[in-house]
Specification:
The chain is of the alpha/beta class and 168 residues long. The chain contains 4 helices and 5 strands. A 5-stranded mixed sheet has the order 2-1-3-5-4, with helices on one face.
């Protein structure tokens, strides 16, 4: 067996189940959860900012799945980001309006020992996050499978990079 199959990984899907394409992160996490992967805990959360920290504390690694709306890509485009990709968006904002990259930085400054070694993001370009409906647009719905494959690829990479388990 290569890598460490015993590392703890959190998959956190963010979004709203009733705001059209904003549900994509939740759907990705639900699909990964249905696979019953060992040492992978899945969460579906309608949170943002600093509220993400208690969800990922204590995990070795985390994948955050969410909607993104850049208008630069076709709806349904799946993108993978590292924390460093968001360095330019880290702000000195008030704690009431903290974006996820800023929350990660604050978490690493406050309590680095319980933060994941690495956090990756799987984002899906969305079309509609304003319409109240439990149905996503067709392009985003179709992208869930590709996004899940991206999450599985990241999990595999985490396991390969994990330090050997010394408890055995």
């Amino acid at each position: 067996m290569t890598g460490n199959q015993g590392c703890r990984i959190a998959v956190v899907g963010l979004g709203s189940p009733i705001m059209c394409d904003d549900a994509v992160g939740l759907r990705i996490s639900e699909r990964i959860e249905s696979m019953g992967l060992p040492d992978v805990d899945c969460f579906q959360e309608a949170i943002g900012g600093l509220d993400i920290l208690p969800v990922i504390h204590g995990y070795d690694y985390a994948v955050i799945a969410d909607a993104i709306q850049t208008s630069q890509y076709e709806p349904g485009t799946v993108m993978i980001f590292r924390e460093a990709d968001f360095d330019s968006t880290v702000t000195e904002a008030s704690t009431h309006d903290v974006n996820l990259p800023t929350a990660m930085k604050i978490g690493r400054q406050m309590d680095p020992d319980i933060m994941p070694r690495e956090v990756m993001f799987v984002a899906v370009e969305v079309e509609d996050i304003m319409t109240v409906t439990e149905t996503m647009t067709p392009a985003v719905e179709v992208s869930v499978e590709s996004a899940c494959n991206a999450v599985l690829h990241i999990i595999s990479g985490f396991r390969e990079r994990a330090p050997p388990d010394r408890s055995s």
